Amino acid sequence: MTLKWNFNQGTFTPGARARVTFHLENPGPNPLWISEINILFDFSTYTMSGINDIAPVGRSVQIASTTFDLPATEAGTNVYAIQYHLYEWVNNAWVDLGVQNPSERYYLNIFPAPFYRVFVSRGLHAEDRQVGDHIAQWIRDWGFETRTVGIEVQVPEDQVTAAILDEIQRSDAFIAIATPRHLDALSGMWRTLEFLHGETGIAFGLDKPMLIMQEDKIEVGGLPGYLMSFGLTPNFGFNRWDLNSLRNKVQAAMPTVRDAIATHRWQANKAILGKIALWGGLLLAGGGIGAGIYADQQKLRQQSTSPSDDPGNGERYSG
Question: Which fold has domain 2-110?
Answer without folding.
Answer: Immunoglobulin-like (2.60.40)
